[in-house]
Amino acid sequence: MNTDHYITTSIPYVNAAPHIGHALEIVQADALARYYRLRSDRVVLQSGTDENAHKNVAAAEALGTSVQALVDENSDAYAKLIRALDVELDSFIRTTEERHASGVGTLWQAMRSDDLYRKSYEGLYCEGCEDFVSDRDLVDGVCPDHNTQPAIVREDNYFFRLSRYQDRLLELIESDELRVYPAQRKREILAFVGRGLQDISISRDSHRMSGWGITVPEDPTQVIYVWIDALINYLTGIGYGSSAAWRSVWSKSATKTHVIGKNVWKFHAIYWPAMLLSAGLPIPDRIMVHGFLTAEGKKISKSLGNVIDPRELAAQWDVDPLRFYLLTLSPFSDGDFSTGRLAECYKSQLSSRIGSTVTRVTALCERNGVEQVRDTAARLPTDEFHAHMERCQLDKAVQTLMSLLAGINSEVSEYRPWEHSHRTQETVNRVEKWATTLYTFAYWIQAFIPSTGSEICAQLERVPVRKSAPLFPPRPSPNSKARPQA
Length: 486
What we know:
This protein is α/β, with parallel strands linked by helices. The chain folds into 2 domains: about 5-290, Rossmann fold (3-Layer(aba) Sandwich), CATH 3.40.50.620; about 340-460, Orthogonal Bundle (Isoleucyl-tRNA Synthetase, Domain 1). The protein is about 45% helix and about 15% strand. A hairpin with a 2-residue loop joins strand 14 and strand 15. Helix 13 packs antiparallel against helix 14 (about 395-415), helix 14 packs antiparallel against helix 15 and helix 15 (about 425-445) runs antiparallel to helix 16 (about 450-460). The longest helix has 29 residues, at about 340-365. The relative contact order is 0.12.
């Protein structure tokens, strides 16, 4: 069976346990996937873990454990986070799996032979990025992402002829055949490509990598550069190199969307499409580039002790409030996470707006004898909501749905049904209209807060409709922040 949408997250390094930033990306991807499923589209959602990085070797050495034990533990933690966030995942790939290694080798050999060559190389290497960088990537001589000075590395590596694809990449991105959201990132990527692309090193010396990684086919002295290996997960997780199932997912007819952070667009919007072009495979259709999260105004960092465990937050607040808070942040800008703002969101948005509206409308349904609300026409999204979702503007899509509740409450306050005789035809008609609008809200809000949306739909589908218990009862504000990870 063919797939309508294939949606992926980037796969995180597993040198440490996941933090709140990882939660942001996976719930964004899940919201997109759930939205398309609500439209009855066929969707595959994939995530996984990037385990072949040299960072994992260094982290294991520092902890006095084996690399395999470290990646097993942290990959499991990420899988548990996905479950804790109520994410409906279809595929989970670990890059230490044999099916992945097999598929990486298959793609390496599928790329044009004259796109791969070996040469000696000297360049600036950032250990944090696990990438060679140029002077133009640095700020005052240091990597802006890791605040460290790159080291000079001299090595003999395989290279990919990225320069060959410069004009084609410009054409794809400018024409929106490869769509990049937001427009700011599209301009940034086009400017980067327009300055000229150089061929890139795509392997590393096996000895320097401590033998950790996927060996270059027929050359045991080299391992495949971790970012090249990692990108191929978007194929191997759906069967590339091990079965034919991938062809119905990574197809020209399916919309292929990558949800990624703003620090990795170079790999996803430049390296990855060029590799696919070289191998004669379809390119992605959309790349959604989200901003970073800070914690209480500071960069999230284990060294600062502010790495908040999202699983603890989900347990403390329940998963829907956490998802709602994250998904109402601007997806394309940097956002600051704080438990205080989470508490305020719970009170002002979930309890006071969603919860109170549901209680009010279901009480009016019970009072006026409304038997059931299940109008399939109510499931059709408004044009505005649909447009926001297609542009990956998740926060604006939520705002559009919340405006439906504002409209209900405004009309209720204006009509004042408690001052009218109940069960008159006019009152019943108005209540049915409000209930139908609430059903529309509930159906589509399932993309963002699935349990809550499903519960509201069930309340309105009950025969007869009864007054709902509070969905988000008032709760005391937390006296302390969520416990940082050790």
